[in-house]
Design brief:
148 residues; alpha+beta; single chain; Ribosomal Protein L9, domain 1; three-stranded antiparallel beta sheet
Length: 148
C-alpha cells in the first residue's frame, strides 16, 4: 500500500515522501497514529510545502550542529572530585556530568546518550567523543582533579 508520510518515520522517510509499505503496517500503525495518509493529489500538494519546510529545518539543524562541533572541538571540561586510596574517585564522572558541564559552559544542551565514554573512576585527562547530530561529532578533553 502506498502512503504519504505526514511526520518523520525513522527508517522509512520524511514528511512528504510517498512510500510503499505492507498493508497491515499502514492500517495498524501509520494511519491510526497520524504518521501517514493516503496519497491523494490534494494531500500531496498540501504536504509538498511541508516537505520544503522540513528540509530547510534539517539544513538549519546541520548548520547549527557544525557550529557547535567547532565550538566544542578542543574544549576542556574540568571536574573536581573527592578521592580515596590510590586516586580513585568516590563519585565517578558520567556522561550526564559531561552534558551538564557543556550546558553550563556553552549554553547548549547535549543528549547524554550521545556522549561516548566509559564512566571515569580515576584522576587524569581523558578524551570524550560527543555525537552532536547524525555524523557530526566533537572531541573534548575531560580533566579530573582532586577536590580540596
Amino acid at each position: 500500500m502506498k502512503v504519504l508520510l505526514i511526520k518523520e518515520v525513522p527508517g522509512l522517510g520524511i514528511p512528504g515522501d510517498v512510500v510503499e509499505v505492507k498493508d497491515g503496517y499502514a492500517r495498524n500503525y501509520l494511519l491510526p497514529r497520524g504518521l501517514a495518509t493516503k496519497p491523494t493529489p490534494h494531500e500531496m500538494a498540501r504536504y509538498e510545502k511541508l516537505r520544503a519546510q522540513y528540509q530547510a529545518e534539517l539544513a538549519d539543524r546541520r548548520t547549527r550542529a557544525q557550529m557547535l562541533a567547532e565550538r566544542l572541538s578542543g574544549a576542556e571540561l574540568s571536574f573536581a572530585r573527592k578521592v580515596h586510596d590510590e586516586d580513585k574517585l568516590y563519585a565517578m564522572v558520567r556522561p550526564q556530568d559531561v552534558a551538564r558541564a557543556i550546558e553550563e559552559q556553552f549554553g547548549e544542551k547535549v543528549d547524554p546518550h550521545r556522549i561516548v565514554m566509559e564512566p571515569i573512576q580515576a584522576l587524569g585527562e581523558y578524551e570524550v567523543e560527543i555525537g552532536i547530530y547524525e555524523d557530526i561529532t566533537a572531541t573534548v578533553k575531560v580533566t579530573v582533579t582532586a577536590a580540596d
